[in-house]
TrEMBL record, chains A, B:
Species per Swiss-Prot/TrEMBL record: Sinocyclocheilus rhinocerous
Domain PX, first and last residues per copy: 195-305
Main localization of the protein described in the UniProt heading: membrane
Intracellular or extracellular location(s): Cytoplasmic vesicle membrane
Keywords attached to this entry: Cytoplasmic vesicle, Membrane, Protein transport, SH3 domain, Signal, Transport
Signal peptide stretch: 1-17
Name of this chain's protein: Sorting nexin
Residue ranges with Gly residues bias: 149-160
Lineage summary: Eukaryota, Metazoa, Chordata, Craniata, Vertebrata
Annotated GO CC locations: cytoplasmic vesicle membrane; plasma membrane
One of the GO biological process terms: plasma membrane tubulation
Residues that hold a 1,2-diacyl-sn-glycero-3-phospho-(1D-myo-inositol-4,5-bisphosphate) according to the record: 231, 233, 272
Length: 541, 541
């Protein structure tokens, strides 16, 4: 994928073409000339340029996926460990995974799904027959066997060989247009109607005469209002497709964690559903993702057959990895200045790092607060309540007349503090929970950005090298212009994504803070009410 | 004092008499016949009765004072240690101090102030000349030396020798009348006007050209509204007098702790003043104490000369220890049934123990709550506040337009949580403090009851023995009747004191709970208000 990325920057021009099966679509113009004069397109090994730069430093969607799977921020934060965040920090460092990918795929072509667990793909691997929601062993390799040969004579080193087939992007509507709005810079073209969906009604299903069971969620898009059913593994399949296709341009936050033990427990199902809802809503809100064919398939397939056919088609989609930039058009926007692009990148990098720190800080504090609110604090209120009630029953034993007013009031006060104890313990679920969930979601999202930004930084570096290449006669000045133009498109895309992120962030934090504070107000008001009532039962003697 | 107590039960009839100096007052009738036919009045050693029973088991006001000084419940509860309550528990057990007192005073007469640190008493011991507010070494022994011989030929083993002098109780107004009120049983005769006083305006004074300094408090009784000045050591002098005089009948709670280090610090002075106020208010509320000459002297002496003369007189008061019962009259009340008396005693004993446990429990819990409210909890709110503000400043660095509304609101929310942190930390001073102070006061008060109840239990035991004594011809049936009558008076007195305690307790706990809950309501309302305001600054996008 690395070298291919370089090729993308330099060479592709997209032309409409027809393949041997008569399918029409856009194909890279240069690719068709693959065996002509281009000195470094026949294979990575023969390339006169030092491609190892990209090989070792450029993150790939594959490595993104791997890193994200290890620490995707979706660990339930109730067991969040502050010290365990080291895995995440690695995202900011040079990524050894990239190196590995480069080694196993020395070929210059993008490897498509290489490095991903290739579950649910190969024919004969009937995914509904295994109960595990994730199984690398069973499913890996299926793709290579089943797809080999279909692409024709292209060497198997890179799945990109299959991009010789006509791309599914056979009309310009699939180009995601970047508009320019003065205030915030480049933004995606947002649809008039904001797609959303409801994930609800988890149901236990079973098959093989009850031998295998699973949970199925009902997903209802607001567009059709027609529910479709999906298991967690279908969401995961969608995630893989989106990551593969859009991962270079758009950070795709991981799904909530897979879990084997206890996954049929109500509490877990509820939590997973809530997080799947959060993930889906975020995906729905993204104009590029929500309008993509694979996402639309997921939300509104007509029947099983439609779903299965759509899946196959999506799995064969070639416009993946950096190829996605070919479908993006900065409509009417001038080429960007390299320095400016770099500055934007750096600024965004700094911002996401800082926000990542801030979010993690808030999560750590929130987690401690959660523990206190559900542990020692209510226990203390309960003990205060018990102490009042105990004193009241001691007073009752005095044998002194006219004590009942005090002891009744004291008992009521004691019970009030026991009620407060319960309120305190239950409150975090009503407010802190959402604050934590939102920040947890952002932690996951922010964890994807280093990779996304890395793709752009690498592109900029490559364009910077272009001058030398021109001087050495390795590329023409016109080639250099092409590279700049493409880097410019990537940069517009990143900026549009940054702006999308920012506007969503503002919306999300406004909403979650409002919700948090509203619940906090209610909480303290209710405590005050309860205490006011307890107070009224005491009489001045 | 032990054997004297027995004598009191059996023999005293009070007659008006005139002493060698022409002073007139009540003296025990039997005492005058001391060298006549009574077989066990000439000295403990020769007594045919086993007086060691009382010697070893009966608490004396002296031992009360000693025990109370060790663990009087006035240790500032901010350093209250749950495990350190062992000292207090001793109060409920047989008291080794009593044994010791019995040994050193084998003589049958009460030793008056024996066992007390006899500070401020002897002539030539000009108490204003030493700065220490408590000094056993300097002041002890002064009394024995200066008073010896004054009492005539009476052997020095017991200071009661000096009771040969005419008692100061030379009119029946000084008899504290117990009234009977159907509902609650015997009660003290309460004055129409409830005395109170204000302890305020602590001022640093000095003497010996600034060599010695001290704090003087202004004490203003509500009766005269004329302030008098008192140093802590004057309060302590008053405490000693009250303990000596009333300790057998009325539990005299200890003063707030003496303290040498830091006693000029504002915080300490304020706390001490508050506790002196609490102590004085409690003393004012007691009809027997507040009407006593020594208490009136303390509150309303005219000038230095008046004060010094009054002090001398009070120090020479002979109606101390169990003698105080001679000044108590259960007006128109029938003699009590012994069984009933014993049951009342036991019930009250159980009650005070149970309340003591309850109060200590509340203090332990309150102390923990105090620590949490002033330690980790506000720190957590502060961290939440800082995290919000930090996130806000990260957001500000985004370079994205139209962020100001969110960042301003987020900063405000952060500051609100910092304010809440401060409120949380300061709140205990506004509510928990008074709840703790009241319970601390009651802890001290309850610690005095085992001794007071012990005096009565011992008296009952002795009266029970009377049958045997009559059978053995050691006392007459009429003597037995006298003993019963006196034990009855003591019991009425205890019951009046119990009822005084109960009614005060009901008043105090009503008041403190009202205050606590009122402040708690205000606290939670204020938090809700602050959060409501913070909430209003977020805008729905």
């Amino acid at each position: 994928i690395i070298s291919f990325f370089f090729l993308y920057l330099l060479h592709y021009r997209w032309i409409e073409a027809k393949n041997s099966r008569g399918e029409v679509g856009l194909v890279p113009e240069d690719y068709i000339e693959i065996n002509q004069a281009q000195p470094f397109t026949s294979g990575g090994n023969a390339a006169p340029l030092d491609l190892s730069f990209f090989d070792s430093h450029m993150p790939t969607p594959a490595s993104t996926a791997q890193v994200s799977h290890r620490d995707n921020g979706n660990n339930p934060w109730t067991v969040f460990d502050n010290n365990a965040s080291g895995g995440f920090s690695n995202n900011w460092a040079a990524q050894p995974e990239g190196t590995e990918t480069g080694k196993t795929s020395s070929n210059a072509w993008p490897s498509g799904g290489h490095g991903h667990p290739q579950a649910y793909q190969g024919p004969g691997a009937e995914d509904d027959e295994w109960d595990e929601e994730w199984d690398d062993v069973k499913s890996s390799g299926g793709y290579a066997e089943s797809e080999a040969g279909e692409g024709g004579a292209i060497n198997r080193g890179g799945a990109h060989g299959s991009s010789m087939k006509i791309s599914r992007n056979n009309n310009t509507h699939n180009k995601d247009v970047i508009q320019f709005i003065g205030e915030v810079g480049p933004v995606w073209a947002y649809p008039d109607y904001q797609l959303d969906c409801v994930v609800a009604d988890p149901k236990k299903g079973s098959k093989l005469y009850g031998l295998k069971s699973y949970i199925e969620y009902q997903v209802t898009p607001t567009t059709t209002n027609k529910p479709v059913n999906h298991r967690y593994k279908h969401f995961d399949w969608l995630y893989e497709r989106l990551l593969e296709k859009f991962g270079s341009a758009i950070p795709i936050p991981c799904l909530p964690d897979k879990q084997v033990a206890g996954r049929f427990e109500d509490e877990f199902i509820k939590m997973r559903m809530e997080r799947l809802q959060g993930w889906m809503t975020r995906m729905c809100r993204h104009p590029v993702i929500s309008s993509s064919e694979v996402f639309q398939l997921f939300l509104s397939y007509k029947d099983e057959k439609d779903w299965k056919m759509g899946k196959r088609k999506a799995e064969k989609d070639e416009t993946v990895g950096v190829m996605v930039f070919s479908t993006i058009e900065p409509e009417g926007l001038p080429d960007l200045d390299l320095i400016e692009v770099e500055q934007k990148c750096d600024q965004f990098n700094r911002f996401t790092r800082a926000m990542d720190d801030g979010v993690k800080d808030l999560l750590t504090i929130g987690n401690e607060h959660w523990k206190r609110c559900t542990g020692p604090l209510p226990k203390e209120y309960q003990r205060i309540g018990k102490a009042f009630q105990n004193l009241s029953s001691v007073f009752t034993s005095s044998g002194y007349e006219g004590e009942a007013a005090l002891t009744d009031a004291l008992t009521a006060a004691g019970k009030t503090y026991e009620e407060i104890a319960q309120m305190v313990a239950e409150q975090p679920k009503k407010d802190l929970h959402f604050l934590m969930e939102t920040n947890n979601e952002y932690k996951g999202l922010l964890g994807c950005f280093p990779d996304t930004v890395g793709v752009h930084k690498a592109a900029i570096e490559k364009v910077k090298e272009a001058d030398k290449l021109v001087a050495a006669g390795k590329i023409t000045p016109s080639d250099k212009t092409t590279m700049s133009k493409r880097a410019s498109t990537m940069s517009y895309s990143l900026q549009a994504e940054m702006n999308h992120f920012h506007s969503n962030r503002i919306y999300d934090y406004n909403r979650v803070m409002q919700q948090y504070l509203e619940q906090q107000v209610k909480f303290y008001e209710m405590i005050a009410d309860k205490l006011r009532h307890a107070h009224s039962q005491f009489t001045t003697m």
